[in-house]
Amino acid sequence: MKQKTGTVNCMIAAVVLCVLAELIGPLKFEVAGIGVTILTMIWVIIMGMLLSPMLLGKVIPPLKKIISSAEIKRAPFLLSLALYPLGIMFGINAGPQIGIVMKAGPALILQEAGNMMTMLIALPLGLLIGLGRSAVGGTFSLCRDTALGIIGDKYGLESREGMGTLGTYISGSIFGTLFYSFLAPVGLIIGFHPYALAMASGMGSASMMNAATAALADAAPAMYTEQILAYSATSGLLTAVTGVYVEMFLSLPLANWYYRHVNPAVSRLRMKLFKAAPEKEV
Amino acid sequence: MANTVQTEKEMTTFENILEQIKIVIVIYGIIAVIHIVSVGNSLTDLGKATLVSFAMVVISIVLKNVVKRPNLPGFAWATLVSFVLTIPVSPVGDFIVTTLGAYTFGLVGLPLLAFAGIAVGEQLEVFKKLSWKIVIISFVVMASTYFGSALISNIVLALNGMI
What we know:
The complex is a heterodimer of chains A (282) and B (163). Chain A is mostly helical and 282 residues long. Chain A has two domains: 95 residues, no CATH class; 179 residues, no CATH class. Chain A is 73% helix and 4% strand. Chain A has a two-stranded antiparallel sheet. Chain B folds into two domains: 119 residues, no CATH class; 34 residues. Chain B is 79% helix and 0% strand. The model of chain B has no long low-confidence stretch (mean pLDDT 91). At the A-B interface, helix 1, helix 2, helix 5, helix 6 and helix 7 of A face helix 2, helix 3, helix 4, helix 5 and helix 6 of B.
């Protein structure tokens, strides 16, 4: 008898969820005059989360037998393999348009610097609410797998910096895909051009990139779709190649420099606002 | 349990590749089912698209497992392989793009979101121990990188007169 790996049940669950979500379809409604669309992809993510033994499994015990901890532990591996067919879809949209992509080269390369802006507001805010050094680890990048490696190597994941990185990593794993599928249409409403948002989608996480891109393609006029996919693919590729070096040699030193310069001011503000003692260094 | 760990360690690169390919085949099955249910493509078109896409994924999986430098994620390899094969000078470019026209972009990405949702279960236990502070900060981080990059792109594209 083969060891139960959870592969089979995960696959069955995926088919059922996807078909069910397709049957429900996108849901459009209005909240205070603003049109809100719940995309099919959002149904899939939410239903997948609900399958957890900790959520619906508590209410419907037989569900725990289908989706147990074995399935949950197997899912990230299956996710990494499901990314291959999607990567192909991104590539075939960028390849034929290589001319346009090259023409947009300066924008595509310069926007990579935007991946260092994670800390701009988040770091001072983190210090203000009392995260101390954890704010450096939690805000120096989007904190995906490469960031865990870098911080683990330099400070150790049990350090304050490591706790911050792990925090953003876990929160991102849970809310990232959902958050970006809502954020992409918001970007259009704010007034960003669909191409600019497409270029911003390559952030270092393929599943978040897919969520942002698919939601953007859905919300933007159909004439933009092909180029949205092309720019998004190239941006994702650029981040995959350069990401780890940018994080290691630029983002982390920058976050530490930023920390040294804003921490005194934020500490004073903290004392005024909360009458709290300055954050103690550990 | 000790046995599985043992066998996993002894798995060669070749066996790893084979196992990953087997799973990918099932994933293509899921993708096909979703297309049949929601688009209702002809089975021949769907079959052709699946074969062509699968062939490129096999190349990508082999590259991912064999090339260690640069150590790129599998997703990046897949994008790179299909990108190179479909640039205008490629003799198979047109064929690949036309054949894969049977696929709908959003539906190919659907199964992975199901796995992403299911995978969240493992994080929930740890999540309960997280401070609410870092959760708030993580949202600011996610929004900042996205809008930060978008702002730069928007400015540069406008300066170049491309939008």
